[in-house]
Every structure is written in C-alpha cells, then in structure tokens.
Amino acid sequence: MLKIENLHARVAGKEILKGLSLEAKSGEVHAIMGPNGAGKSTLGNVLAGRSGYEVTEGTVTFDGQDLLAMEPEARAAAGVFLAFQYPVEIPGVNNTYFLRAALNAQRKGRGETELDSMQFLKLVRERVKEMGMTPELLNRAVNEGFSGGEKKRNEVFQMAVLEPRLAILDETDSGLDIDALKQVAEGVNRLRSPERGFLVITHYQRLLDYIVPDFVHVLADGRIVESGDAKLAQELEAHGYAWVRDRTPTEAHA
Amino acid sequence: MNAVLTPFAASMQTAAASPLPGSGLAWLDTARHEALRAFLERGLPDSRNELWKYTALRALQQRAYAPSDYEATSRPVSNDFLWPDGCDGPRAVFVNGVFRADLSRLDDLADGVILQPLSVSLQHQAEPLRFLLAARGEEDDGFTLLNRALAADGLVVRVADGARVSQPLHVVHVGTGADDAVAWHLRDLIEVGEDASLTVIEHHVGDDASGHLANLVRDITLRERAQLDWVIVQRASSEATLLRRTDCVLHENARLNLHALELGGKLARHELRAELAGAHARFTSRGAFVLHGRQHADAEVLVTHSGRDTVSDSLWRGVAGDRARGVVHGRILVRPGADGSDGSFYNKNLLLSATAEIDTRPALEIYADEVKANHGATVGQLDENILFYLRSRGISLEVARRMLVRAFCAVTLDGIEPPSLREHCEALLAEQLPETEA
C-alpha cells in the first residue's frame, strides 16, 4: 500500500530526512519511534503534503501512485489521513459542515456520489456513538476551545468519519493524560481493519501499550536505524534511544 | 461660470439645466441652484478631506455622465433582482434612479406607515420637505451638494408613533443596461415615530455592464424609543460607482441596528453618521466587504455620542484579493456632556493577495467623563496552517479559502432577521471569493 524509498527531505534548507525507506501493507500497524529531532513529524507532514517540506530525493508510492506528485486534497481523496500533532482551531467553521464538506470532497475526488445532509447526519451520528463523543461537539466550531485531549479525540473521530486507507498519527499521544490516551487508543483500535494501514508516530512507548503495533521502526537522524516487532518498543523503553544511536542503519541504503 | 470644468463637473452642470420634479417652486429652485454653484466652486472631495483620504476620484473627474435614462420607466428588470431570497412583502423599486410603481408593491403597507416616492412628494406635497431640502448641511461635500442640486427621486417614509411594523420593507435599487453611463441622485427621508419600529432591507443589484453613478443621500430620524433595523445587501454592478451618505439622529432610548454586506460595485462608499442625541440611545453596526479585481470599498462609520449613557458598538470585517482596495474608518466622538457613554469599534481585515490593500483607521475623540471607549483594527492573511488542515481532509484549496473567508465574515451576519435573509447573505458571501492570490 505505502512504499517509501530513500526519502530525503529538507525543511527551511536543512536536511531532516536522509534516506528513509519503509513499506507498509494494508491491515498493518507500523510504529515509528525516535528521539526529538529525528524527523518523525517531518515524515508525517511530507506524506500529507504540507508546503515548506522539500523532497530532494527518493520516492513515495501509495497504491502504486506517486504520492509526492499529488496535492494534499488529492492525497486525502486517495485515502491518506494525517492526525495532527497540533490540530488547528477554525473559528466560525462548524464541525458538521466541515466534516461533510471534507467527506463529500473526497467522495467526489474518488468518483463516488456525495452524501446529502440526511445521509451524512445519519453516518455522523453513528460515528459519534461508536467513538463515545459528545454530540454537542458537532455543533461547535472545529476544535475551537477544545482541550488538548478533545482535539486529539476529534482527530480520531474525523478519521472514523472519513475512513482513510492509511492513517498517520503524528504524536497523537503528546500532551494527553492517561485517561485521554486510553480513549484515543480505543478509538484507533476500533478502526483497525484489514483494509486500513496505520503509521503511529510517537516519542514514547506508552501509546504502544494500548495500540499494539505489528512493526516498530526506530527513526534516528533522518533514517530508520532499527526495525522489529512490538518487543522493540519495550527494549527502547528499557534502554533509551542511546541504545540505537550508534547502531548501523538497517534500511538506509536499501 | 468656470472655464476649466472637469468632464464630470460639466456633465453635472448640463444635467442641472433640465427640469426636475418640483422645478418651479421658488425655494427649491433656489436651493438647487445654490447647491450647484457651491459644487462647481468646490468640486469633488480630494485627499485633503480626511474622510476621502484613501478614496481617490481622479478617474471619476474625467468621466461624463448622462443626466438620466429616458427608458428607466420601461426597462425590463430580471426577477432575480426583484426577488432576492428573503424578499417578500412590501417593496419599493428604483430602476436607474427612477421609482417604478409597476415593479413596487406598496398596497399592503402596515398601518401607520406612510411611504411616498420623493418625485411624487415634490409635485404634490413639497412644503413639509422644505426644511430638509432647503437646508445647507454643515458637512456637505461635493456629492451631497450635487445631490441637493440634482436629486430627482428617493423615498419618504414615515412611521407613526407607536406603530410597530413587523413586516420588513424592501428597497431595491437596480442599475441596468442604459447605453450611456447614467448618473442619478436619490434623496431618502426615513422617520420612525415614538415607540415605533421598522425594518428596512436595502438591496443594490445590477447588470455587470452598467457603469452608472448612484449618489444617495439619506436622513434618518428615530424618535424617542423608536427602533430601526436596517440591512444593506449591496451587489451593485461591478462597473458601478455607488456613493452613499447617511445622517442618522437617534433620540432618547432609540435604537438603530445596521447590518451591511458590501460585495459589489467598482467604487462603493458609504459614509454613515450616527448621532446619539438622546440619553440611552443605542447604535450597533455589523458590516463586511469582500472585494476582488480592482474593486474599491470605503466604509466610513462616524458615531457621535451627544446624549448621556449612549451606547455604540460596531464590528466590521474586510476582505480584499487581487488588486482590490478597502478602506475602513471608524470614528467615535464623545461630546462634552455625553457622560457615561460606551462606544466601541472593532475591525479585522484579511488580505488574500500581495497586491490588495486595506487601510483601517479607528479613531476616538473623547470630551466627556466616565466614558468607556474601545477600538481595535488588524490586517492579516489566511492562516496557512488552517488551509493545510482543511486540504489534508480533502477540501480543495479554493473551497478551503472560501470557507475561511465566509467564517471570517459570518460574525457580522449574526442577528439578521429573518433567518432566510441571513442564509441568503451567507450564500452571497460564499460566492464572493476573490480570485486566487498573485
């Protein structure tokens, strides 16, 4: 589904990703771990298409398409979803209106029929119930006045409505207390399916106690330096990132 | 009279040679003649006039306008212009500056409402208007003088004491396909009696090709405890020049609530003066303009607190893309004796291109005690992080911008009644997105 090969990317003239390679299949959950400054968030932003991130080398294909050549909205329509580390507040834009515009834009982009307001409301109410959200959230402006936890839960809620093929969670655990973390993880687990892949980007192993990954990759200095299964996350927790810092990159020059 | 008249002034002088409604009344002829003479001496306002500092009229000076559209009484008018959403009930329609009885609907006016076109009043009952039309304003500018000299029509509306009129009155100004660019000058008088209330919804609509000049002067008087709710939906022709000057006087406990949505016109200016003369009078204004191309809009909101414990509260939003230019001037003057007044003026603006410009000047002048006065103005751009967030959810850049512009302005639509009119305004806002940035 997702194939990243030898990805190099710069931000503000500084090279952050230095030959990152990774392959993820449908139904798999890949955790990307790494210390601050390793390039974790850069990876998420490059995949989602944020401007200011310049890819200088390498390729990213998504279901065989050249992802890097697509506009952010086209990536979304193709099924890429980024759960933001810092979800923005959008005063004056109502959550329901926003979600319907997003879902219908994606459906249109895929050549599917758009949902009318009745169909959409039915869907969104189901998702609200499944995700244990408060229905009042739908009438509020997007993220406006939300607590940190509410914003992250709203990201997962959007994911539930938009049903992406690939969900990228960019430090979704940051700033959450343990209860909020559990709620977010429950939401994500509910969305795990054979048709959907996840990239879970995190600094801490803690989140992976609740979202158990199939694969764990350690990102350091712009490359993946170690890959393994869920046990790797526990070893990192025990030894710290210093443990992998000097190890030979395993995939950097694949 | 003057050998070096500009083409504009010369065309106005020519217009004054034709008879107007009410011609032959000595006092009116004299007033018109004096106003014309004053205009020819003074000319159009220029940047030395503080209120015209950012609205240049050099191009206008070089244009000549036809004095009237002889076909105005018979021109067909699209139903889209006459029936904007939320527009049912009584309406007064002007086409190219001429009142059109055939398109208006004034037979089911509420009890206590007296409405007459100025052209009719001048022919039959001019005397009650003498004070208004013969007076010289202290703060006349070139356009108000021209209006005094040339106003041929307008609307005279009086609401009797105690009449609470629930059904809105629609006033529709249509500018449409005259061969030559026509100038017209309308004079309105609205007077709402004690304990009376009225809602006026003013529409400006036009064909895109119509390069007319509309010069409107209005006097609004709200007696004790009167209330006027006034909504302006301005979608004039993209070639039109629309100049409006409104003087409002609010007596004790009177209320004026204005909502203005300014979307059309090549040059659209509204100088609104609200004098809170009586104690506890209250003025609120909510306004937005969204401009693109080379449009120019100028909102001058000049509030004077003269009575004690008067309140004014204004909130304006401006959006400009392409090479458009917006001007917002919010002035709050608190006169000696207007103790306990509370005035605020807030204006936020969005620039959607590097070549657009918005000049905003909030100003406070306070000469009384125990006054609360607040103002603030900002100019910014659409937030790139928010745009990316919307796009990352599948929403195209164009739709994302439109969504944010609409959200930015929507706060100024709060309080518009009925809800269908508010929805209509929101839809117009959404359509009005300036072209993508340079």
How would you explain this protein's 3D organization?
The complex is a heterodimer of chains A (254) and B (438). Chain A is built from eight helices and twelve strands. Chain A has 254 residues and is an alpha/beta fold. Chain A has one domain: Rossmann fold. In chain A, helix 2 packs across helix 3 and helix 5 packs parallel to helix 6. The longest helix of chain A is centred in the middle third of the chain and has 15 residues. The longest helix of chain B is centred in the first third of the chain and has 17 residues. Chain B has one domain. In chain B, helix 2 packs antiparallel against helix 7 and helix 9 crosses helix 10. Chain B starts with 6 loop residues before the first helix and ends in a 7-residue tail after the last helix. By secondary structure, chain B is an alpha/beta fold. Chains A and B meet through helix 2, strand 7 and helix 3 of A and helix 8 and helix 9 of B.
Summary, kept brief:
Chain A is an alpha/beta fold. Helix content of chain A is 35%, strand content 28%.
